Amino acid sequence: MGDNVDDDSLYTIKEGDYVVLKRGDVFKAVQIQTKKKVIFEKQWFFLDNAVGQLYSTTFELASGGILQPRKPKDPESSTDTKGAGTDNRNIQDDGKSQKLTRDDIETLKEQGLKGQEIIQQLIDNSSTFKDKTEYAQDKYIKKKKKKYENIVTILKPSCRILAMMYHGREPGKICHLRYDTLAQMLTLANIHANSKVLVFETCAGLVLGSVMERMGGFGSVIQMYPGGGPVRAGVESFGFPAHFHDTLHEFPICHLNALIAGTLDTTAKDPSADLKESDMAAEVKTEAEVKTEAEQKGSPEDQSMETNSGADGSLVPKKEEEEEKRREAKAQEKKVKQEEKRKKLAAAASLLEGRNADGLVIASRFNPCPVLMALLKFLSPSRPFVVYSQYKECLIECYTKLKEQGGTVNLKLTDYWLRHYQVLPNRTHPVLLMSGGGGYLLSGTTVVGGGSKPAASRRDEEPAPKRQKVTETEG
């Protein structure tokens, strides 16, 4: 029984969970917080009533921004079409067929009519609806449902849903990475539990979160990041448990050359941080000096007040003491952060020093060639790697260099194409609007061995018997 309760809790919406709101083909990731207004598709509501409900539940938006679980559809109360025509050629779309005006529809909304009832009113007051064909009527009803039905479905975040959300709303943030290409990346990189994976990505944390989801909280993931710190906005949207984050490590890509050369010192403090601290102290001191000078140059009344306050209890030293305490607190907090950063760097460096990673995933808006050549040294033999780019030219460069350098086999440069189909009775056809491309992937496997030799040197090293035989034939 306990196992069943635990299983049910996994599918129950709880306060603090990260969820994905869905309406039609639009998604949005939010966190469940009580008494917090959420704006989605020009509607505002509260998610308080969603707590305790199951994931994938569809809610109706009531007055006051309150969500109510949607009741199952009654087939008898479905939209009444009242017959259909056989031809649409005589129907004129002049905007005069609908008797209800926008003010009338707003009045119906104020009266508390639901979306289904408003749609039925629109059908009853349309002079051309009965003359439309059955297919045209269905299309009309779907269009009106999308506009007037205030329903929201709450989904559990997953790799596929978040990839569709980013690709639909902000594709530039994830380098236009489509979800089918992301699935191919996870498969080609052989991501599984209890493995050590290197990830270098600039896709808002979507690829990193997908790798962590596939590993299930077992193993270790080392994120190689450019800049001052790692970007993990997409990882937070997954809502992983705490033990998932224990497997995540980070390493700045700027220290990679020092790690390869063996000159990286993870025990010493960062000298640039000390310089920043001294500069900050100097700036604070200068500001204090400026303030004291301004106070000294004040009016005689202010000076008399300062002397009186100094005699009574000295307000100025109290301010200085408070500023000193704030400075000390900031310095202490900065020292703690630096120590945590140093420990994380040392832990990631110790994992990389073994050079026994099980996989490599690169998805970046930068040129991946130098990063790929450097990170391949940390993979064990017979391990897969995959590189994503929106453009094929940089992957062609990677392919050429890997062929020249050697140490890799089964190199493939591929692009992926996806087409959606509308599947309805007598109306199955490809969807008219779709994405033009899903980017390009370069995949391969590492092997033991030195670099390959040029083709000219291989021709010069032909077997001696063969050269003798050719000479005898010529003679």
Automatic annotation (TrEMBL):
InterPro entries: TRM6. Signal peptide: none annotated. Heterotetramer. Substrate-binding subunit of tRNA (adenine-N1-)-methyltransferase, which catalyzes the formation of N1-methyladenine at position 58 (m1A58) in initiator methionyl-tRNA. This is tRNA (adenine(58)-N(1))-methyltransferase non-catalytic subunit TRM6. Residues 301-311 have a biased composition (Polar residues). It is found in: Nucleus. Residues 90-102, 270-300, 317-340, 457-475 have a biased composition (Basic and acidic residues). One of its GO terms (biological process) is tRNA methylation. Belongs to the TRM6/GCD10 family. One of its GO terms (cellular component) is tRNA (m1A) methyltransferase complex. Residues 65-102, 270-340, 449-475 are annotated as: Disordered. Keywords: Nucleus, tRNA processing. It comes from Notothenia coriiceps.
